[in-house]
Fold this sequence. Notes:
Layout: E1 2-7, E2 10-16, H1 19-28, H2 31-39, H3 54-61, E3 69-73
Antiparallel strand pairs: 1-2, 1-3
Amino acid sequence: MKLVQTEQGKRQVMAEGTLEEIVQWLKDNPDETDWAHAEDPEIEIPDFSDIETVRDLQLELDKVDLTWWTLTIE
């Protein structure tokens, strides 16, 4: 499983591993998602505390989907 950042069409793998490893990476690197909220307080900060499935994780990541910048699971 991979956590992929897409920024203005350019894709970069941010983390690879199991669901648990990717969730831990996101918890250890809050700046990767929290910056969006800092720029626009109406954007909700993702909560990675109760992630049990890939779908749970993607729903949290979708909170910071800015169309020109996204994090997705592959």
